[in-house]
C-alpha cells in the first residue's frame, strides 16, 4: 500500500522558508549599507573644498578654516560632544617668510574658546567642547530628536576685554559626524533672522548652526521587535486569562505562567538601547498595558485556582 505524503511537512517548511527569506532580506541590505558607510565619519556640512579630515585647504589671505567633529550625543547630561581643529591660519596673520604669527587671534566654538598667539605650542591641536541641547526630550523615546545651537566666532586679539581693537575673521568650516550606530547627525547653517530668533545674545560677528541628532533606522529594528514582543505577551496572557476566567474553559493547573510574565516583561523592556527611563512613549504604548493585563489576570486566575472544586 503506497505511503501517503504527510502534508504537515508543508506546514513545517513554510515557517522555515519565511524565516530564510526574512534573514536574507535583512542581512543583505545591511551589509551593503555598512560597506558603503565603511569610513569612520561622514561630511555633515562643508563650505570649503575639503574632502577629508586633516586636509590642508588654501582659502586665501582672509579666511580661517576649521574642522568640527560631532562625536556624541548624551541624553543623560543633555549635551553634544564636539572637537574642533584649526587647519588653516589666514595669511595676513602670518609672516610668509618666517611663518611667525604676527597677530594673535581667538576662536570661540560654543562656550569654549582658544587663543592662538606666537607662544602657542600647537595651534592646530584639538579643542573639545560640550554644547547643551535646546530641543528634545527622552520622554519621546524611541521617537526622540534633539537639537543643539552652535555659535562659532573668530576675532583678532587676545580677548574681548584687553582694550585692543578686534577685527572679525571670516571662518570657513567643515563639519564631520562619526558613523554612530545609534545617532544620525545633521548640520544646518542659520540665516541672520533665524539666528536672532533662536539665540539669546549677540550674533553680529558669528556664524550660527543647528546640530540635530535623531535615531538611526538600524536602531528601530530591535525596538520594533521589542514592541511586538511585549504586545505578543500581552495578547497571549489576555487570551489565556479570558478563556479561563470569563469563558470558563479548562481550569488552569497553576498561575505560574502569569507570575513569570509579570517579571519577564520588565526584564525584556530593560534591554532597550540607550537605557530610557520608565514612563517614556515606549512604555505608554506597550509596557504599561502589558503589566496591567498580566496583573489583572494573575489575580483573577489565582482566585479561580483557589476556588477550584476538588475532584473526588
Automatic annotation (TrEMBL):
<feature type="transmembrane region" description="Helical">
    <location>
        <begin position="9"/>
        <end position="31"/>
    </location>
</feature>
<feature type="transmembrane region" description="Helical">
    <location>
        <begin position="288"/>
        <end position="306"/>
    </location>
</feature>
<dbReference type="Pfam" id="PF14494">
    <property type="entry name" value="DUF4436"/>
</dbReference>
<feature type="transmembrane region" description="Helical">
    <location>
        <begin position="219"/>
        <end position="240"/>
    </location>
</feature>
<keyword id="KW-0472">Membrane</keyword>
<protein>
    <recommendedName>
        <fullName>DUF4436 domain-containing protein</fullName>
    </recommendedName>
</protein>
<dbReference type="InterPro" id="IPR027948">
    <property type="entry name" value="DUF4436"/>
</dbReference>
<keyword id="KW-1133">Transmembrane helix</keyword>
<keyword id="KW-0812">Transmembrane</keyword>
